[in-house]
Every structure is written in C-alpha cells, then in structure tokens.
Amino acid sequence: MQQIFKLVLLVIALSVNIQVMAEPYIAYKNNLKCGTCHVNPNGGGLRTSFGNLYGHAMLPVEPLKLTSADVGKINDYLQLGGNFRSNLEYSKDENKVNSENASFRIDSAQLYLALNAKELGVTFYLDQQIAPGAAVNREAFAMYKFSNNHYIKMGKMYTPFDIRLEDDSAYVRQATGFNFDSSDNSIELGLDYTQSTVNLFISNGTSSVSNDDNKFLYGVRGEHQFANARVGSTLVLNDSDSSQQKIVNVYGAYTFADFTLLAEWDWILTKQSNGQDRTQLVGLFEVNYQWRQGLNFKLTSEYYDPNKDIDENQETRFSFVTEYTPISHLQLRAGIRVAESIPQFEQRNNDKLFLQTHFYF
What we know:
Elements: H1 2-13, H2 24-29, H3 34-37, H4 49-58, E1 78-93, E2 100-117, E3 122-131, E4 136-145, E5 151-157, H5 171-176, E6 184-192, E7 196-203, E8 217-225, E9 229-239, E10 243-256, E11 259-272, E12 278-292, E13 295-305, E14 315-327, E15 330-340, E16 350-360
Antiparallel strand pairs: 1-2, 1-16, 2-3, 3-4, 4-5, 5-6, 6-7, 7-8, 8-9, 9-10, 10-11, 11-12, 12-13, 13-14, 14-15, 15-16
Protein name: Porin
InterPro entries: Porin_dom_sf (IPR023614)
C-alpha cells in the first residue's frame, strides 16, 4: 500500500501542479516590483488591485466568471484578503530507524486587512495567521507614502531581506532567520525609484514583543532592475550582549524566453562573547519554466555549510515542483524534495513528497 501511495504521489508531482502568488519569480518574470502586486511594498500578504487582477485573469488557465478580481474589496477604504494552504505529505528519514510518515495537515491560513486613507497617504495593515494552532499576529503596521512614492513604516513587520521566498523551510530562510515566521517590531524607510529600491531599517532583532537589551538590528537592502534581470544585496548587523551577527548577501534574477532564474548567496558571521565564532555559508539556485499559462515547473538546488571551519559538513537539497493554477483563486501544487546531510546527522537525510491545495483571494 505504501509503495502504491508513493507511486501515485510521484506521478502527480511530475505531471500536475500550481503557482503561489507570494512567489517572487512572478514579479521577476514580469519585471515588476513586489509592491506592484502586494500592499506591503516588500511583497507577501494582501494583494493590490493589480495583484488580484493578475491572480484572477493572468495566472490561471481559466478565469473564474463567478467572482470578480477584487473579491475582497469592501470599499475604497477597506480591503480583505486571505491565503489557505492544505498539504498531503509523505516523508522518509534515512537514519538507523528508517522512519516513514504520511499525513494531512494545514500548512498555513492567513487573513489580511488593509485600511487605506488614500487622501492622507496612510495605510494600516494587518496580517493574522489563524491556523495551524493558535492565532498569531504576523504583521501589524502603519505606513505613510510620500508623494514621490517613498514610504515609512512602523510596527510589527517582516525585515526586507533578499528574495521573499514563500518557502520558509529553504536553507536561506532558516539559516538567516528571515522568513514568514520571524516578523519583528521595527521601523523602515523605503526609497522607491523607477528602477531601484533602497530599504533602511532598524528592529529589535529578537522577533519578540519587546527588546531584551539596549541594542538593535540595523540593516540596508538595495536592488536594481534591468530590462530582463535584477541584482540586489542586503547588509545586516544584529548586536546583543551575548553575541554579534553580521549577514551579507547578494541575490539576483534573470529572465529569458519562458525561463526565470533566481539565485541567492548568504554569508553569516556570528561572534560569541566566549570567543567561539562561527561562519556559515548558504545558497540557493532556482530555475522556473512556464510551459504554458497556469503551468510552471520549478527546479531548486540548495547548499548549506553550518560551520566553515569544519571540513565536509555541508548539506545539500534538491527539489522539483510542478505548479498548476486551473481557475482563479485555486492553486494546486505538488513536488518532491531530497535532502542529503553528513553521516553525523543521518536524521537530516530525508525524502519528501507533497501535494498542496492553495486557495487565495
């Protein structure tokens, strides 16, 4: 029975699947900034009217005629939105126990709210995770947009760090700590030019309700768009009483024909007060091929060196995902992921197959 189950999942993974609107390659493919499709200028979360139109008519194979693009728009001042992702997963850990597991689970469910006073240039934004588990506030901030489209934000929000991948389990998201599970109380100044964007930010650096010392996290990110490419870099300094962490990263994207390539490389230096310093290297390379409207194939390669001073302790991971959007507001996703670690961590050698249903508005 298990062999049949695995075979069915594998066949589906190699034939059918879906796109996720938080996926940055969509913006890169169309040479758009994240703020074109999302209320948050850094991407993710509630979609703008254009983002809703893209997800309604341009992303799927067939637009759904029963709803409009702005289905969550209450009026000119109030807008609602949401994401719901449910998974069927099979995983196998290649350790001494050789354990296997198959289960249904809710991957995530969020509700979004934006209150816009456009004549004042002010937006109040709320991102609330309602499942799995207890409700968690992910973002709650106020944003003021200047007449030249620059902006300032204050509140609880995600740090504007490199490529805004939807996959929080990616090595580049786990090792750096900047993912959709790690918003922080902060202030951010965004300088939005025609082809360039600069973000200056200060946060607690703790991802907690309040700071635990008198030091902060400081960072700057810069990005420039070309005709069919973009490059960017982020610098972060997080100082605390027990340690100091510096992160430098470079990332980029390139589009040709129906292919969109993404790459990211992070260098992480952590200096401990006891003198035990550690340097980590982590990278990602992703190839997206849009075969036809509503159908995208994604191949990803990941690399992680948890300590540069230790030889041959690197981990690698490879993923193949098919993304299929049959109608508006519904995405189907399937994939296979193979992780390879060192002999000391056999439990990190694992294979994973998954199916995902994604509803969005």
